[in-house]
Specification:
7-stranded mixed sheet; 12 strands; alpha/beta; 14% strand; binds pyridoxal-5'-phosphate; globular
Length: 365
Amino acid sequence: MENKNIPQMEPWFDDAEANAVFEYMKSGGWLMEFKKTAELEQKISEFTGAKYCVVTVNGTISLVLALLALDLKPGDEILIPAVTMIASPNSAKLIGVQPVLVDIEPKTLCLDLNKAKKAITSKTKAVMYVPLNGRSGNMDEVVKFCRDHNLFLIEDSAQALGCYYQGKHLGTFGQIGSFSFSVPKIITMGQGGALVTNDENLYAKMKKIKDFGRVKGGIDIHDDWGWNFKYTDLQAVVGLEQMKKLSWRVNRKKEIYKLYEQELNGLKEIEMITTNLQDTAPWLIDIFIENPEKLAAHLKERSIGTRLHYPAINTQKIYKDEYVGKSFPVSEHYGSRGLWLPSASKLTDDDVRYITDSIKSFFIR
Ligand SMILES: *Cc1c(COP(=O)(O)O)cnc(C)c1O
């Protein structure tokens, strides 16, 4: 136990994925996107309760595809929380759409609607709402806000597969919701992204854009702009096996979060976000403390991996110049204090207690 190396995150596969890939290869599949990807899309639709799903290469390109399908153009503005993974604003940047940062609310670490209101200009076309770590604010209010201001709602729900607001899956409240299957996410195919929508036209548009804008599959006539954002059936085969494990992992993530919460409860130095575990399966165990680097170093000595939280986007080198003199106090506060503790679904209760004991030994000396 003492010598065990506990990474902050690790993927989890077993014979099921290995055998599925072997069977697929023996069946003579062409690896490219075909029936297995369609099956995966069907499973994601069923799981999220969305009518349609489009699987694509990753959770960054999926956002780009969503913005293209909604006809966002260079010069348009999109409101984005100042704390999120860098892919959220960068997806807009890739196609010349201007991300406009908005501070977050301390209760949920999600976009603050009151502050968003003040950031709206005549160029604002959409909100990219990010249910950070699977938590969301009041989604009815988010939807109403977008309706009232005539804005599209895109949910970057990359961290929210298996997470809900009042029983409705996150990612299904706006026009388009996006998910990611990169290695640290709750399920993974190495890379992968998915978009869900209830709008048939948007669905058709996304399918077309990701396949070169063809009038029809296999025909080289193009009446619309399009590129190649297609997936591979080889990865979809892994995804289909991972989907079978999703519900168990959603539940396990909740158990792990709860155990951490119980064990760390007495430490006044540590803040954890109050989380409704009925709706939310926290993807990461996020704690907020002064000098997270110091605790990280202490845990590293005990072979416990951690990762520093995303800093506020406006403090990143690439965005700094756009935001001189502007501050996002809540984002900067949480961005600089956050630490992600080991969070893999694979963790045992004993692992968690070893980690929390190690944390206690740091504060209580
Ligand atoms: C992981 C993540 C992404 C990017 O997804 P990739 O599949 O790694 O491109 C985008 N947004 C959020 C909030 C994420 O957590």
